[in-house]
Amino acid sequence: MAHQKNQTLNLEILIVGFENLNDYRIPLFLLLLIIYTLTCIENLLIIFLVCISSRLHCPMYILIGNLLLCEFLYTTDLVPLILHHMLSGRPTISHLGCSIQLNVSGSVTMVETLLLTLMSYDRYLAICKPLRYSALIHNRLCFYLVATSWFISLIFLVVVFYFVINLEFCGPVTIDHFYCDFTPYLSFACSDITPVVLFTLSVSIAVTILPFLLIVLSYVFIIFTIVRIQTSEGRKKAFSTCSSHLLVVTIYYTAIFCLYGMPRSGGAEE
């Protein structure tokens, strides 16, 4: 058992990634590096502006700042390793590194989902309860809700990391992806994965399906309220306050469905 555990700790995972694009490795590296750098600068700049500008110290901008922080953490968790693999030509990662990567990305995704739900609630209050908006949601309450979202995510990270780091793998692992994807990685485990699967499945339903239903419910009330507005100018102004959030939610849940809801063809290789 100890020998098997040592084998698992020393395990190297092969990430297939851009294996078929080796001839274009350097141009792809430079393109991805530029995009990553610009994304990080943009996110950090907006977060900085939200922090220093007193006029932006309101619930919606606090949520936007945290959402951009999630974006920064998510891309930083994945992209630097992808860049390293492209430059070195040796796309491998350790069992510990893979466990950290997939847990950080999963936890940040959880926070993003909760923040988008809080943003839909904020838009619901702004449009449907404008006179009571300041009483129903304020900076202190928003801070508590955001802190709770990060705390829940941290608990999830610790629990799943404990499960994953204690899994045993019986042979070489090759993941046909650009990073350590959760489901293909678990498929190579030769120890019991039932506890971690049940835990992640139940948490995923709780923090993905339930928030989605709450967002839909919020927008049902928002649409009914907008329809009842007498003037077209008023309807246009009301819709413009939530259109950007609605677009982000649509893109976000479409991406989640495409990544995890649709059947896959060979995420892992023997």
Shape annotation = globular
Order of helices and strands: HEHHEHHHEHHHE
Strand order of the largest sheet: 2-1-3-4
CATH topology: Rhopdopsin 7-helix transmembrane proteins
Please compute the radius of gyration using only Cα atoms.
21 Å
Q: Architecture, CATH level 2?
A: Up-down Bundle
Distance between the termini: 23 Å
Helix tally equals 9
- Biggest pleated-sheet summary: 4 strands, mixed
Overall mean pLDDT stands at 83
Keywords: Cell membrane, Disulfide bond, G-protein coupled receptor, Glycoprotein, Membrane, Olfaction, Receptor, Sensory transduction, Transducer, Transmembrane, Transmembrane helix
Domain G-protein coupled receptors family 1 profile: 42-270
Membrane topology: Multi-pass membrane protein
Protein name: Olfactory receptor
